[in-house]
Specification:
Keywords: ATP-binding, Hydrolase, Membrane, Metal-binding, Metalloprotease, Nucleotide-binding, Protease, Transmembrane, Transmembrane helix, Zinc. By secondary structure, the protein is of the alpha/beta class. β2, α4 and β3 form a beta-alpha-beta unit. It is elongated and about 60 Å long. Bound molecules: adenosine-5'-triphosphate. Adenosine-5'-triphosphate (ATP) binds next to α3, α8 and α10.
Length: 274
């Protein structure tokens, strides 16, 4: 429908190299994908196909990036949606949107001459929360439709569809989603450690003029508990401070100010939502 404008249909050029830290998560995901693309062996040995990969972890840690990189890695088309897009007042609308999403993904793969499609559903908990037997019939239908789509995926069909989903509330999910043959592979995408933070800062410093004295190591040291998204903000805010200063490059004090700003910004956000 016309309300799917926000959906990303662009080919994915993002690679795993552009994701900082997350070494373990990247390795686990690549292993799963390597296995996935051995279609012939999988069929020959009668292995149950991998249909769903669940990415779990706090907001802004790179779950969407992982799904995009997975599409690039497997030469699949990438189609993204968010759980909240399927929440509608009228019973059945969410379910038909799910149907449309999978149809569109298959059609796009055919159009681009690709063998596979990755459908990424962010905030899966919005539609995949535990069913409560009648209270929220609309949500139930949407979830049931998703389960139907998953159950309908066969190894022999082309294009092959892999569903990736992200949540930061895995414990809220309906157990039916986690059963074998559905989202049975879980990958944790956690907050980065210090080494990961250095890596992420470097990735986002690539297109920016850093002063020779700027020390991203020490910025990583100060940003314990920052997500990748927050670290990206730090680099961006630092560049803005440099511009305000009419400075030709980003200096250590711009970076420090940016750390404070992002830290403070988060705090006020949290307070205002309470
Ligand atoms: P949410 O759950 O809130 O949707 P997410 O885990 O999907 O978050 P992304 O959307 O992948 O997070 O990340 C948001 C942005 O933050 C990215 O576009 C990127 O700029 C930056 N970012 C997050 N994690 C990383 C990372 N590991 N490496 C590099 N950049 C990152």
């Amino acid at each position: 429908g016309s309300d799917h404008k926000s959906r990303s249909r662009a080919p994915s050029y993002l690679t795993f190299d552009e994701i900082g830290g997350q070494d373990r998560a990247k390795r686990e995901l690549q292993e799963a994908l390597d296995f996935l693309i051995r279609y012939e062996d999988i069929q020959r040995l009668g292995i149950r196909p991998l249909k769903g990969i669940l990415l779990t972890g706090p907001p802004g840690t790179g779950k969407t990036l992982m799904a995009k990189a997975a599409a690039h890695y497997t030469n699949s088309i990438f189609m993204a949606a968010s759980g909240s897009e399927f929440v509608e007042m009228y019973v059945g609308v969410g379910a038909s949107r799910i149907r449309d999403l999978f149809k569109a993904a298959r059609a796009q793969a055919v159009k681009e001459n690709k063998n596979s499609a990755i459908v990424f559903i962010d905030e899966i908990d919005v539609i995949g929360g535990k069913r409560d037997g009648g209270q929220h019939r609309e949500y139930d239908q949407t979830l049931n439709q998703l389960l139907t789509e998953m159950d309908g995926i066969h190894t022999t069909e082309t294009p092959r569809v892999l569903i990736m989903a992200a949540t930061n509330r895995k414990e809220m999910l309906d157990p039916a989603l986690l059963r074998p043959g559905r989202f049975d592979r879980h990958i944790e995408v956690d907050l980065p450690d210090k080494k990961g933070r250095v890596h992420i800062l470097n990735i986002h410093a690539k297109n920016k003029p850093l002063a020779p004295e700027a020390n991203l190591e020490s910025i990583a040291q100060e940003t314990f508990h920052f997500s990748g998204a927050q670290l990206e903000s730090v680099m961006n805010e630092a560049a803005i401070y440099a511009m305000r200063d009419e400075s030709e490059n980003i200096q250590q004090r711009h970076l420090s100010l940016a750390v404070d700003k992002v830290m403070l910004g988060e705090k006020t956000d949290r307070e205002s939502t309470k």
